[in-house]
Structures are given as structure tokens and as C-alpha cells.
Amino acid sequence: MKLLTTLTTLITVAAAAPSSKKAPTSNVDVKLEAIGNSEVKAIISNHGKQDIRVFKPGTILDTSAVQKVKVVADGTASLRTSYFAVYLANIHHTGRHVPFLGIRKRISSKTIQDASLEKIPAGKSTEVIFNVAQTYDLSSGGKFNVNSIGSLSYAIGNGDNKLVGTVPYHSNTVSLDVNGAKAAHDRASFHTTMKRAKVQSDCTGERLSVTERALSNCAQLASAAEQAASSGSAEKMEEYFKASDEQTRQTVAGVFSRVVQECSSTNSGVANYYCTDVGNYCSGNVLAYTVPSESYMVYCDLYFNDLPDLTTQCHAQDQATTNIHEDTHLTQIQGTDDLGYGYEAIQGLSADQELNNADTYALFSNAIYANC
């Protein structure tokens, strides 16, 4: 882990864990529509019998550059794309997932602000429009298939912002016929705006001391989690990763092994580490954010001021497990997504999804440390 004082572009952060309080069933679905060159409209519908307020940060309702969709290039030529560009697309991207180049979030579960919730009345819908080209490189042009898979946490009633439930969703797939030149322009313009963040001083004084302690705790928790994944309780592996076969154990242990390496130094490693909000994303309940495509992470005021260094409370957040969560997002560690935040949310994930979900690793390491 490299502690630096300068920066430029994009971001990552995780979202609030829902309460374990039992909630009424809520039927929510997401429908996508292609509009324009690379824009997509998402229609989020509440088919339940009561109003809900959906938690927005880190989800398809988030207005920042978080991952809202998956993009697969099918290699079909666009009439507006050059032969050479299509040739390159066919070589490098046909049938492949296009890498996500935006931000990921981790958010405090302590106090959910009103602005973080969007009300969807029973039988009604809400819409959001976003430009896929801003967070994916679609400059090769041609056909791209887009869908969204995730989960939405929600509160009910008015005044109480406690998250009481989580519903998974799997949208339809839409096809975009992309003009590569326009998509490249959209992405460049967006990233230029992102790079206007003011460069600030980095980890010094008390924040350096907190960071050094957090990294040490991160390495210790990840080491214990690595051992538990390699040869520990099969029941615990099943609880968090839905499997305990040798391949799953090796995968999980390998991730934690790489986290141990990343957290074991303040002057080496694969990522740059910041203690000030160089990207201006530390608002609301944001604890930390990471930009996997650029290998840097930022830890916010809330991380330093509100989180304990370690907790023995099961399924709770602390500085060490927040570091583990963020580390797994790094491409060199595992390149995880944010498919579910909190213990309740990960119960609805499949075994494959658990291996690709940042909070699952954080929660597993907490469970081993706290003997949950």
C-alpha cells in the first residue's frame, strides 16, 4: 500500500448494511431501455402493496459513476464504425465483458440520511438515465449488450430511515449500437471533469497513525481469514461463500493472501492510498472509495471519525474490514463488485456471486475475528 500526496480521476465505496429486522415482502424489478448512442434508461418499479424508500448509494439509482450495469461486446459491426475499429473489437472484445472503469463505494450503516433514500410508492416506478460510455470504454463501437444484476435495500414508512429489507433483481438485456467516436468523446469529457478535483495533502499526523494501525489490523484479520478459508470450518464457508469445496477454499484463501500482502506495507503494494477527499466523493455516509482501473483508494473523514479500529460485534463495520473490502476491489487482488452490502444482503447471493462480492470477504473476516 503506497501512501501518496497527489491524485487525479475516478472512485469506489461500499453501501450501508440493512437491519436484520424482518420486513414485509417487496416486489421490485428493474427494466432497461436503450436511448441515444450509449445512454440507458432504468425503470425501477415497486409491485408491492406498500410504499418503500430505496437506498440509492452504490446502486443503479446512484447519480455518481458507480457500476450500474454489465456490458458485453458481441462484435457486431456498427454502420457508423470503421472497419479497423470493428476488427479490433472482434479481436479483443467479442463476447467478453467490457471492464468497468468507474467508482465503487462503502457507506456507513449507522445513520442513513434522507437524501440517500428514494421513495417509490406502491404500484409506481422511478426512472434514472445514465451514459454507459462514461464508465466503460466503448470506443471500438458496434454492438454492446447491457444488463443489470444487483440488489436494492429499502426502508418503509416515514421518518425512520433504518433499512429493513433487501431485494435482488435481474434486469432485461438491451442492445446498444454504439458510434465509437461519440462514445470516446463522452468518456473523455466525463473523465476530464472528474480530473478537476483539487489535489490535497495526504496521510500525516494522527491520520497516518490511524492508517498504520488499520493496515496492521487488516493484515492480521486477512491472515486469520486466509487460514480459516484454507482449512477452517466448512459450515462457516457455506454460511458466507455458499460452498466449501477445495476450489472455493483456494480462491478465497488466495484473495485474503493478496490482501495480507497489500496491507503489510505503507510504502509498497499495488495501490495508492489517500487520507483526504481528493475526488470530492466523501459526502453523506461514505466511508471510503476506490478506483480499480487506476489502483487508488481514498479513506474519508467518516472512516477516521466514526469507525472503531476493530469491532467484536458480528456483521458490524470497522476500519480493518473496510480496508479489506476496498482491497478486494483492486484488480490485482480480486476485482470484486458490490453485489450486496451487509450480512442480510449476501444471503441472497449465489456461490459465484459471493466470490465476486467485496462485502462477503469483509463480513467473513469479521466473523472469524469476532467468532460469530
From TrEMBL:
One of its GO terms (biological process) is proteolysis. Residues 1-16 form the signal peptide. Coiled coil: none annotated. InterPro entries: Fungal_M35_metalloproteases, Lys_MEP, MetalloPept_cat_dom_sf, Peptidase_M35. Residues 226-366 form the Lysine-specific metallo-endopeptidase domain. Belongs to the peptidase M35 family. This is Neutral protease 2. It comes from Conoideocrella luteorostrata. The lineage of its organism: Eukaryota, Fungi, Dikarya, Ascomycota, Pezizomycotina.
